[in-house]
Amino acid sequence: MQSGEQNQALSSALKGKTRLRVFGLTFDDVMRYFFGGNATVAVVVLALILIFLLKEGAGFFGQNHTNIRVYRKAGLEYVDIMRAPLEEFSSLTRSLNDVRLKRFRTLLAQGKDVAAANEALTPFDDFANAFGAAASEARGVVSDTTEVASAVKTRAQVSADREEEKAMLLHSGKAAEAAALKVDEVNYEAEIKMITGTAPVWKAASLEMQEKLGAALVVARAADWSKGDKDLAKVLEKTERFISDLPKGESRMAAWRWDEPVPFSRAVTAFLFGREWLTASFWQDWYGILPLLVGSLVVSLIAMVIAVPFAIAAAIYISEVATPGEKAVIKPYIEFISAIPSVVLGFFGVAVLGTALRSLSQVEWLHWIPGFPMTERLNALTAGCLLAFTSIPTIFSLAEDALSNVPKHFKEASFALGATRFQTLVRVLIPASLSGIISAVLLGFGRVIGETMVVLLCAGNRIAIPDFTEGLSALYQPVHTMTGIIAQEMGEVAQGSIHYRALFMVGIILFTVSLLINFLAQRVVRKYRISIG
Fold it and tell me: Phi first, then psi: what are they for 262, rounded to 5°?
């Protein structure tokens, strides 16, 4: 009787399937082609995105190569050899100002008023003024030489623009207008002689700076107000190294040649390993992705360090410990976090979190923590905390699914052998779902490294590699990210310019990193499925 009913049901299902034929296709065929078509569309869209990125960014390295050649031939590279120690000296001056600010705040916390605090800092201010004045002569030499090199670069750019205009006129058939267009050639050799002729003046100014800084160091080390100040001691040690390194620049200036060929590989390495991202500069534009890449990684790693323990712990609790009532409340609320707009989180970070963290760092009994008190409200830590908040739902959901998909007989066998719930969790369930948990972490990492609004609003947007020699204090420094620079600058660039193509190259790097993370996650998922099967 039961067999007859089953046969009748099967016959009805087959008839229904036959009635669902469309243009000779069964329902199963329609579903297969529908979902297969969606997958094909996704692959095509991905390919089009990649082609578009490559098309718009392909010309960057050629333009960057031309940019670097002009930089050398116009003498800007030579002047930058002199500018480099002055920029390092400016960094030392900023560090000295930070030491002064910390001392001033300490005096205020001790009950002194502003006038009394400034009066107490008078010996320090005298030292700082002498320190800053040590480079005045060297700055004058660099300023004069900069004007000459800038003028050479301007003439070179005008000549290049006219050459391009002339080529366009010839291409459009306007030969007479092209012949009438005058292009002034730049005599680089004669111009460079004027620039390199400042070498003796620079050497004398450099020697004067060494002597004045050395004298300032002697005064500072002998003074009572410098005793026991670790921050000041670091500045003085860096100044000593700065003084000893100054003659190295002179040897580089002597070996420099304006007509030395610039290999094309330098256009690539300057982008991949460059430490500067300078645009619309009167001096020289640089497009180095390294500070942006490091900023993205630092913020993402901070987020993962915070998010992974919370998300994995929540997944374990919901999967193995929580009651059905707790699951009904906790799980939807965690997953709801992903619905919060990132711009709202960014505003929260600017208005609340950044200020709260800085205020917390100024609590006196927390000053033992490296980097406290923080000087910047918006920094890598602020952005990382908010990114952790956004990545928790992704990691939690995938990790909870991985734990739930572990076959029940694993747990039952463990209990049958007398293991406790904790032993079963640690020695059976987590190892069995480890591949899925790792995949969740990787996908969470991909989620945070591609975030834009939070880092744009909360990371501080300083294009510089954090000073990792300061330990944990580097986490409290402002950074910029790859996503942030694209969002910030793409709307202001001229299409086809080197800046425009540089941003597309940043997009290609970001696209590649995201694909690599997702590829690793898929590999882990495939391994997870095989191990479970």
Answer: -100, 115
